[in-house]
Design brief:
Layout lengths: L10 E10 L3 E11 L4 E5 L6 H9 L6 E6 L2 E2 L10 E4 L11 H11 L4 H14 L15 H13 L5 E5 L7 H17 L4 E5 L2 H7 L2 E6 L2 E6 L1 H6 L4 H6 L5 E6 L5 E3 L2 E3 L11 E6 L5 E3 L11 E11 L3 E8 L2 E8 L9 E5 L5 E4 L4
Parallel strand pairs: 3-8, 3-9, 6-7, 7-8
Antiparallel strand pairs: 1-2, 1-4, 4-5, 9-10, 11-12, 11-14, 12-13, 14-20, 15-19, 16-17, 16-19, 17-18
Helix pairs in contact: 2-3, 2-4, 3-4, 5-6
Amino acid sequence: MKVSSNPMPILEVSNVSKFYPPATRAVRDVSVSLDQGEILCLLGPSGCGKTTLLRMIAGLEKPDSGTIRFEGRDIVGVPPHERDFGMMFQDFALFPHKNVRDNIAFGLRMKGLPAGDIASRVQKILDVVELEGLDERAISQLSGGEQQRVALGRALAPGPRLLMLDEPLGALDRALRERLMLDLRAILKRVGMTAVYVTHDQTEAFAVADRLAVMNAGRIEQVGPPQDVHEQPATPFVAQFLGFQNLVRGRVGSSGTIETGIGRFRADVPLPAPGSDIILLIKPAMAGYEARPVSSPTESNAITGVVDAVTFRGRFSQIWVTSSGQRLLFEEAGDPPLTAGDRVTILISPDQLRIYESSL
C-alpha cells in the first residue's frame, strides 16, 4: 500500500474572521494549517490579530465565519475544556502558595488521575524542563527563567494534543529571553509537541518556529520557514516588519531596468510590464563601496550619497547614507573607514533586490 507523503494537517484554520462591535475586524479571512509536531509562530505587531486567532483556536473566542478543524473534526462548537489543548501565557499564572511540584501537578489532579500516576508524570516533566531537585521550592524562590519552566511544565504535564503559547517570554528581560527561547524550542521538540506560538519579536520567532505566519491588520501576509521569510519577504509590510529599511518607489523601464530617484537598477527577478509602478527593496548587504563625488552614476546598481552615520555593531557596522533625500541603511563587515559627511557610492548586487507591485 502506498503511503501518502503529504498527510492531512493536524490543525486546519479555513477562512476564519472575527468582528468586535462596533466595527473592528480583528481577524480577516485567515487560513493556515499545522502539521503534527510542528511549531507555528504567529508573528506581528500589537493589534494585528494574532492573539485573537490563538484564542479562537483555543475555543476562548468563537469565529464569526470560517472553520477550525483539529484532526479532521470541526471544533468551533467544542468547549475549551473538551479540546484537550494546553495554554501558556506571558504572566505564567503560577499558584504562589504551591511549590514547583504542586504547580506542575495541578492539571493532572484536575483530571482525577491516581496519586501514583501523578507523581510519576510530574517527575518526568521535572526532568524534561530541567527542574530536578527544585520540586519542593516555593515559586517566590525561583528566578524568572525557572518560573517560565514551571509554567511550561504545568502546560505539558496533562499531555495536551496541542500547546498554545501567548508571548510566553514577554515578561522576561532580553538577556534571559535570548537564552530561554532556544531552550523552549528544544523542550518542545524533545517531547514532540505540536504548538502555536504568538510573539511580536522576530528574533524569538526565528529561534523557536518551524514556520512563521506574519500577520498584519488581521490578515496573514506570508507563511513559510523563518529563513525563507527573511530572505524573500513577500510584501513591503513583511520587509519593514523584519527590519529592512530600504524601500524605494520606482518604475519599470523599457529596457528591463528599474528607474528610481536614487539610481537605475537591474535585478535577478522577473519584472512587471514596462511602465509599472513598483516598490524596490534594497537589502542592506552591499557588494562594496567607493569614495566618489556626489553625482548620479551612469552604471546600474550604484547609489551615490552622503554618509550620515556609522554605527559599529560588533561583527558588522551599520552605515546610514542619504541619497536624493532618501535615508538608506547598509551593512559592512568589521569597522569600515567611513565617517559622517563622507561622499560614497554603494554598489548593490542584483540578488539583493526584490520587487513589489503593491504600494507602501
